[in-house]
């Protein structure tokens, strides 16, 4: 039997240790036992775990299967020296069958942040580096993230900037293609990705209703007819069909996709990226606003947003008016907004903002007064003058080093641009690992 240890390093086998099972190996034993007709037992050698890792499988809350002492199961189990990483390799049955002799043959990658940027990065890493251990670390998940409240419509504004116009354009194009591919795969109720049509109106500024990039990339993008302008009471307008991604469905979809391919998810609040040094070969920093603390980037600024979530199923189109008034139909609820308050750290619902949003939106669609207000939501958009996607070798006071690929600072465009910036970030990871391997 292969003798595996930390990151593929050979591990000397010692005595039988019966305390917390490594799930993926136990499943392999069950399958092996079924193939051996009449066999009552399987002879297995056991590796003694490193100190502090004895019940790692239990600490991770692995499912399915019993955890704890081997007495809870009739099948013997191996406790790897690094089962925190190894026990999640459920979809790589040949993982334990590899006779790996070099410590650095199989790198390990951490992704910090479980919002839409972090989850997109994590799943794209699995696409680019099949079988490579990827661990997602965060202190907030799903409905606790800023991404959960975002409307997620594909409609880029001038505030979204990369390091150059060419890079920005590539991010936007890659993102649109990513979502189009998901659309073609079907199951919008599962993925949370759908098409939606609607209007952008203004009675003051003709330039803000026209977006040359959207005109180029969207299949339907045209000036409003005079009848449409007269009906809604505006002077200028554009009609378009674009993509909307509802994160209340999209984030669970990505999470399940990540875990089904062996991804490790850990609930952990990091005080510094230094905590990952020595345990991972490279870390992807997708921490959003948390980058202020994790890497001291004070250029990351919160833009406070407040919205209503309203049930009004008769509203099928989206509506934008000027800059900050919008009505966006999700799968079950409308998102009514909004606010753009720079450097505001308030997480409380402001009744004055609520009154202003309600007044503006009901002027656009008076029928909203008959809708059901389900909840109000406040979140911080992690704004940065230029989205940061780059590789950095971080050196800490302890003299430890960590290779970090940053991917944060998307502001209010995180959902619609996460695929493009994440494709860029993953390429930086792949290039770094290839260059490191070439030096060995």
From TrEMBL:
Reply yes or no: does the keyword Flavoprotein apply.
yes
MF annotations from Gene Ontology? D-amino-acid oxidase activity; FAD binding
* GO cellular component annotations of the record: cytoplasm
According to its UniProt entry, the protein's GO biological process terms are: D-amino acid catabolic process
* Keyword vocabulary terms for this entry: FAD, Flavoprotein, Oxidoreductase
List cofactor names only: FAD
Q: Which Pfam families is this protein grouped with?
A: DAO
* Record-annotated FAD dependent oxidoreductase domain positions: 109-421
Q: Provide the family line.
A: Belongs to the DAMOX/DASOX family.
- In Swiss-Prot or TrEMBL terms, this protein is called Putative D-aspartate oxidase
The record lists the organism as: Penaeus vannamei (Whiteleg shrimp)
